[in-house]
Amino acid sequence: MTQNNKQKYKDNTLKYILYNKYITSIIRSMRYTIKQFNEEYPDDDTCLDAIFNERYGDVNICPHCGVIDTKFYRVTGRKCYACMHCGYQLHPLAETIFNKSSTPLKSWFYAIYLFSVSKNGVAAKELERHLGVTYKTAHRMARQIRSLMANTNPKISGNVEADETYIGGKTNNKERFMNKTPVLGVVESRGEVRAKVVDGANASTALPFLRANVEANSAIITDDNRIYNRLKREYSHESVNHSQYEYVRGIIHTNTIEGFWGANETVY
User: Fold this and answer.
1) Does the residue 268 lie in any domain?
2) Where are the extended beta strands (E) located within the chain?
3) 147/38 Cα distance (integer angstroms)
């Protein structure tokens, strides 16, 4: 390696390390603990207020009397809010999975929290133990929460990072990919992450995965792996040349998706 390449390697490696520390700090700050959950949602009233603010927080005109800049106040003993001028009521639980449920809202919120932090899903029996409800209630709640979390937006768009990794135990360099599970992933800029286990990380699996998850004409950023060579036919494609120690070029990088892989301890 020439002296110039050595210096280039050091500079780019430093940028890579610093940027990944920044990404890791973001991922850690996104972790939501049970302590934070209990502080944010201590009781049913707080949970109901959260649902109301999510559904009607920006409503400043009463749909019944038409008064501008009105306020809605909680109706004592009921799960609804009334206009301060005409008494028209808004029911935040209507048309939600909580509607007509006798299970406390705090229990619903805690069940959703469990689903959000679990890597392997939450069984109805586990909900039954955590919430102290019957198995029938736990099963219905689990089914409702899964339907709530179903993906309603089939594709992501904008600036998208794509990468591949292998999941499994550590091995030596000669057996780097042996007995490991290949996984493809994409992350939308300031958006969601999607990953899928595939038979092999190659062009025949990467292209269908990207077509199924990323809107056409979006900007996809990858490393210099050859499996992404044909992306320019359908997407705006940029890449960073990791083999030449390039990790960041302006806003072009794959550090977000690599930070996601790194946040999972089972990925090597």
Assistant:
1) no
2) 72-74, 81-83, 89-90, 159-167, 181-188, 193-197, 219-223, 236-240, 248-249, 252-253
3) 24
Nearest to 267 by CA among 173, 187, 120, 164: 164
pLDDT digits (tens, 9 = 90+) for 214-261: 998 899 999 999 999 999 888 999 999 998 888 898 889 999 998 888
Within a domain: residue 63? yes
Domain housing 97: 34-148
Residue 89, SS3 per DSSP: strand
pTM (2 d.p.): 0.55
Last residue of a domain, one of 99, 115, 148: 148
Quick one: 254 and 163 in the same domain?
yes
Rg over alpha carbons for the chain, rounded to the nearest Å, is 24
Structure tokens at 114: 């469990």
Domain count, the chain: 2
Of 181, 165, 190, 194, nearest to 262 (Cα)?
Answer: 165
How would you classify the pairing of strands 81-83 and 159-167?
unpaired
132 token code pair? 């102290």
Could you report the per-residue pLDDT of 61-99, keeping only the tens digit for each? 888 888 888 899 999 999 999 999 999 999 999 888 999
Centre a 10 Å sphere on the Cβ of residue 163 and count the other Cβ atoms it contains.
24
Token code pair at residue 173: 């360099």
User: Are residues 134 and 190 located together in one domain of the fold?
Assistant: no
Contact 157, 214 (CB under 8 A): yes
Question: Which residues, in sequence order, are bridge partners of residue 22?
Answer: none
Using CA atoms, how far apart are residues 50 and 142, in angstroms rounded to an integer? Answer: 21
- Please report the sign of the dihedral spanned by the C-alpha atoms of residue 76, residue 77, residue 81, residue 85: negative
Give 151's contacts (C-beta < 8 A, 6+ positions apart): none
